[in-house]
Specification:
CATH topology of the largest domain in chain B: Rossmann fold
Number of helices of chain B: 11
Distance between the termini of chain B: 32 Å
Number of strands of chain B: 13
Helix content of chain A: over 70%
CATH superfamily of the largest domain in chain B: P-loop containing nucleotide triphosphate hydrolases
CATH class of the largest domain in chain B: Alpha Beta
Structural class of chain B: alpha/beta
CATH architecture of the largest domain in chain B: 3-Layer(aba) Sandwich
Radius of gyration of chain B: 24 Å
Shape of chain B: globular
Number of domains of chain B: 2
Radius of gyration of chain A: 20 Å
Strand content of chain B: 25-35%
Distance between the termini of chain A: 27 Å
Strand order of the largest sheet of chain B: 5-6-7-3-8-9
Helix content of chain B: 25-40%
Oligomer: heterodimer
Order of helices and strands of chain B: EEEHEHEHHHEHEHEEHEHEEHEH
Structural class of chain A: mainly alpha
Order of helices and strands of chain A: HHHHHHHHHHHH
Chain lengths: ~280, ~325
Amino acid sequence: MMMANNTLIVAGKEFRDDMRNHWTLAITAIFAVLALAIAYFGAVTAGHVGFTSFDATMASLTTLAAFVIPLIALLIAHDAIVGERDSGTLPLLLSYPLSRLELAAGKFLGHSGVLAVAILAGFGTAAVAILAANPETRSLASLGSIVTFIASASLLGASFVGLACLISVLVREKARAAGFALLSWLMLVILFDLLLLAVLVISGGNAVEQAVYPYLLLLNPIDVFRLINLVGLGNNGGNGIFMAMTAAHAYHPWVLYGALAAWAGMPFAGAVLVFRRQEM
Amino acid sequence: MPNAVEFSTVTKRYGAAAVLKGLSAEMSEGQVIGLLGHNGAGKTTLIKLVLGLIAPSEGTVRALGYSPAGLEGRQLHARIGYLPENVAFYDNLTGREVLDYFARLKRVAANEADVLLNRVGLTAAAGCRVRTYSKGMRQRLGLAQALLGSPDLLLLDEPTTGLDPLATQLFFEQVGELKSQGKTVVISSHLLAELEPHLDRALILKEGRLVTQGTVSQMHRDAGLPDTITARFSGRINGLLKEGWVAELPAAPRQCEPSLVEFAVPAARKMDVMRRLMQIEALSDITVKEPSLTHLYATLGADKQAKGDDDGE
């Protein structure tokens, strides 16, 4: 009980700090503006503007979120622990009846919470605007897609907050943490998929590799997020290459959500293990 | 008197370098204890060990009957107050918000934060962000957070750094008040002269070793350092320095001015020298000063270290 209390006290402070620093507002605005812009101008290359295909919009939003959410998560949480260490408040905090697990969990929950609120408010606002502007898109299926998107985007955010926490306990300076955060973003958002594609092209895509690739995608939370949101859309979303890579495999939704949840939990668990062994 | 803190042959190493070397010491409850030594003597390491922020490489540490590590550490932390050296807070929060945050972590009622802000003279600035605070104000805020929950053991690391003379005086008044409430206050400092009048006991560290511990007067006796008798005369006293009893003193007197002489006298001969001086008609003033803690530290530190080195320690 006390542990939950302490975790919530730390999480509450982190949440309020992000609110006070206008992080939450800024992220919400970024999400909303980008989502509305994509929804409205997404078909400009086809010669028209306005809210049109719901599936195409969701596919574009998924691609956008896969780039932006990890970056923002790493940005707001990379200094979770190293920031306290850098400023000298960490020894003081640990002189209180507050365990390292509670402190790390509070940071994780606080930052993940801020991101989830921003995702809900930002993308939610955009979704409401799309549904309002285009009556044809109003259906239970559309609503389901939006809920799936917001839930999986929040989990994606949490997985990168967990990764940021791990980076934050592994390094001793804020600047290094920022550097490693950007590097991990580059690796997971850009290089990982490029590498998979390169190997796929070089190998000629034989049957064994076709069977292995879908599992390799589970090793990257961004690909898991894409799978959750794009597979349901089929080719309507214009995500041909990704669909081709995963066509041979039917993922159970719970496997995908489980993989994303594991991605949120494992880096955080690693961060706690390292943090508990460290001396101040 | 039970011990608030016990160190039993504690060694702390960072890699090959030993910061504390086989330290055994006890700090009794209800006392003001000075943890003295120059920079790098091991004072902060000792405090971190009590807090469980680091673990000993060898030996055991206990505070208020608890081991600082693991689950017992949690119980200990609920009864401890800590003011770190160069205390830092969250610059974007106000003084009251900082104290509220720490009060919640310690399960202390919110109104206690206001009482403490008043006690350290920060009520007027409580609503201002910490980034606007001077060094002295941050230090006072640090003291207020250390006092949250009325802890039984206070660990104050260089607490008067950055405080002006008035704030320093107020700080030591607070320390006196805590002592009267039966609290144990451990103050780490290298400002020995400032600390000396407020201490019940002192531990002197040098290069990770405990040089000596005890009450200040006990340490004076053990060290056998001379008292200083300063005598002022109404006229010149040229003949005095040639008298037989003066020549027998272990150290020659120092004539600071034509009519002012300082005698470094062993405690055992102090009364004898004073009696002789009182017989001189031209004597107009006389003062006696015990050796200062600074003097004691300098002498003991050098002596014991040399002995330790000779013993092959």
